[in-house]
Amino acid sequence: MASVASPIIFKEFCPLYYLLNAIPTKIQKGFRSIVVYLTALDTNGDYIAVGSSIGMLYLYCRHLNQMKKYNFEGKCESITFVKLLSCFDDLVAVGTASGRVAVFQLVSSLPGRNKQLRRFDVAGIHKSSITALAWSPNGMKLFSGDDKGKIVYSALDLDQGICNSSLVLEEPSSIVQLDYNQKVLLVSTLQRTLLFYTEEKSVKQVGTQPRK
């Protein structure tokens, strides 16, 4: 008996004007007018997170149709990577061009969820542009990689408001992708892909030939 083909669903793709119109195209800084570029993007069922060249994170709530803004204190620098996570609390990790990494614990209206915006900083280990971020499913672990090959592990205790970070791996080329699951971190660099076993702190390369 021939199998019945699933129906084809046509979808229309169009610019998200309701989102783009809520982000300024220019800002005024003193006597200068600075163009705002969109530099990073991540989405999930609840939020659309957009990083910008002025160091501002624009976070659009899809349920409430509201845009909120978050930034780093001090130097205004480009955001290079953003990573959302929905677990017990909603979290967003942000990396910048100079190697700063921050985690925002978002406010929720649901009972028993976080009622005050909190920020955690990964202090001073990265010195160059952040190129990848990866969460553990429960939000207690964050891995960050930069364009000099450093990978940092940050342990977050959201209840105590603590973030402890340490360098766990250093590769000779830029990190281009990170993904974490079941105590194994998948790492892709410009030269190779490897599995880093976080408990044993051992490395297993995927394939034998370096990338060209």
TrEMBL record:
GO BP annotations of the record are: protein exit from endoplasmic reticulum
Q: Which Pfam families match?
A: WD40
Specify the domain of life of the species encoding this protein: Eukaryota
The record's listing under SMART domains reads: WD40
Quote the cellular component terms of the Gene Ontology held in the record: cytoplasm
Q: Which InterPro entries match?
A: WD40/YVTN_repeat-like_dom_sf, WD40_repeat_dom_sf, WD40_rpt
**The protein's name in its UniProt record:** TCPR2 protein
Protein's organism: Chloroceryle aenea
Q: What broad taxonomic lineage does this protein's source fall under?
A: Eukaryota, Metazoa, Chordata, Craniata, Vertebrata
